[in-house]
Design brief:
Blueprint lengths: L26 E6 L5 E5 L12 E5 L1 E3 L3 E6 L5 E11 L2 E7 L9 E4 L4 E8 L4 E8 L3 H8 L25 E4 L11 H9 L3 E7 L22 E5 L1 H12 L4 E4 L1 H14 L5 E5 L14 E5 L6 H9 L2 H13 L10 E5 L6
C-alpha cells in the first residue's frame, strides 16, 4: 500500500484558518460506515443520529502553550522550541528550529531569563532534550511565556486561545488539540446525555506524530511516535459493560480511537491502564473497540486519513472527501466534521 494512494486535491481556500463563530454550527457530514450514503447536516444535529444506550468517548487532554521563542545565551541567535513530552522532572523532549544551532550544552533563554533551557541530548529530525530551570511552577511560567502550538497550515492569529481547547479539556499535556472535539458545546453534551447517551472520557496526550508527515512510499514502513494515554478503572468497567451489552461505542477523534484500540489490542477488553502507544492504524487493521467515529477532515497522505480509511475503506473515504470538496466543506483543525455511523444492521 502506497502513501500516494491517500492523496487528494484540496483547494487551499478550503483550509480553515479560524474557528467558526459558534462551535456547534460547523457542518457535519453523516457517512454510513459501509457504503457511500452521505447526508449533509450541521454539527448540533449530531444528536439526531445518536441513540439511547450509545456510548460517546471523549479525549479530555488539554493543550500546553508549548511553543517557545528564545535566544541562545552565547550568540543571541533566535531559536524556536516546541515542547513534545515531559521525560523526567524538568527534562523535556522538544522539536527545535533551527536544530543545527543547538548542540549539547547550548543554553537558551526565554522571557529575559525567566526560563532557561540547556540541551542535554541531540537526536535526529530536530529532536532535542532540554533541562529547564525556572522559579515557581513550570506550567505557570509556560502560560506566561509560551504560545499555542497551532498547526503550520494555519497562518491567522488565534484571538481566543480557548478556541483551540475542547470545552471538556482537563488533563494538561498535549501539543495539539484533539480537534474532533472542538465542535462540542457544554449545552450540546448536556442534550446528548439527556437523550440517554453515555458519555465517557479517556486521555491521550497528542505528541510529535501530529507534526510529522509520512515520508516513506510504503505505508507499512512508517513509524509512529509514541504518545501517553490513560483510562480509569471506572471508565474501563463502564465501557466493557457497554461492549458486552452490544452498545455502540463512538470515538470522538482519532486520538480516542487509537487509545481504545490500543487497550483492546493489548488486553482483549477494556481495563484500567496507562502507558505509551505507537499504534499505527491503516487499511487492513481490524477494529475491535469502536463502532462509530466522529472526526475532522484530514491532510492528504496523512496517518489520520489512513486511519479513517481503515474504518471504512479507502474508496469510500476518498469519495466522501471529493464530496466535501464539491460542497465546500472547511478542512483540517478548525474545519468541519464527519460522523462515520455504526453499522446498526450487524449488531
Amino acid at each position: 500500500m502506497k502513501t500516494n494512494d491517500f492523496d487528494y486535491h484540496l483547494p487551499e481556500e478550503l483550509i480553515a484558518q479560524v474557528p467558526i463563530s459558534k462551535r456547534s454550527e460547523s457542518r457535519l457530514m453523516i457517512l454510513n460506515r459501509f457504503d457511500q450514503e452521505i447526508i449533509h447536516q450541521s454539527f448540533y444535529q449530531l444528536i439526531d443520529y445518536l441513540e439511547p444506550g450509545d456510548v460517546l468517548v471523549l479525549n479530555d487532554t488539554r493543550v500546553l502553550p508549548a511553543r517557545l521563542y528564545g535566544q541562545k545565551v552565547s550568540t543571541k541567535a533566535l531559536i524556536e522550541v516546541l515542547l513534545l513530552k515531559q521525560l523526567v522532572d524538568d527534562t523535556w523532549e522538544t522539536l527545535v528550529k533551527p536544530a543545527r544551532r543547538v548542540p549539547i550544552g547550548t543554553t537558551i533563554s526565554f522571557g529575559d531569563g525567566r526560563l532557561l533551557a540547556t540541551c542535554v541530548g541531540v537526536f535526529d529530525e530536530g529532536i532535542r532534550h532540554f533541562k529547564f530551570k525556572y522559579q515557581g511552577i513550570f506550567l505557570e511560567v509556560l502560560e506566561q511565556l509560551g504560545q499555542m502550538p497551532l498547526p503550520p497550515y494555519i497562518h491567522e492569529t488565534l484571538a481566543d486561545a480557548e478556541r483551540y481547547q475542547t470545552v471538556y479539556s482537563k488533563e494538561v499535556g498535549s501539543v495539539a488539540a484533539p480537534t474532533a472535539g472542538l465542535h462540542f458545546t457544554k449545552e450540546l453534551l448536556d442534550q446528548i446525555a439527556a437523550k440517554g447517551v453515555q458519555i465517557e472520557t479517556i486521555t491521550l496526550h497528542v505528541g510529535l506524530g501530529t507534526f510529522r508527515p509520512v515520508q516513506v512510499d510504503d505505508v507499512s514502513s512508517h513509524k509512529m511516535h509514541s504518545e501517553y494515554y490513560q483510562i480509569s478503572k471506572q471508565t474501563a468497567l463502564r465501557l466493557q459493560t457497554a461492549k458486552e451489552n452490544h452498545k455502540s461505542i463512538i470515538a470522538v477523534g482519532t486520538t480516542t480511537t487509537r487509545t481504545l484500540e490500543t487497550i483492546f489490542r493489548d488486553h482483549s477488553m477494556f481495563v484500567e491502564t496507562s502507558g505509551w502507544t505507537d499504534i499505527f492504524i491503516y487499511p487492513g487493521f481490524v477494529f475491535q473497540a469502536i463502532d462509530g467515529l466522529i472526526t475532522n477532515f484530514h491532510l492528504p497522505k496523512s496517518t489520520l486519513l489512513m486511519l479513517v480509511s481503515a474504518f471504512t475503506s479507502k474508496e469510500i473515504m476518498l469519495h466522501a472527501y471529493q464530496e466535501a470538496v464539491r460542497e465546500r466543506y472547511r478542512f483540517f483543525s478548525f474545519g468541519d466534521s464527519m460522523f462515520i455511523r455504526p453499522n446498526k444492521k450487524s449488531r
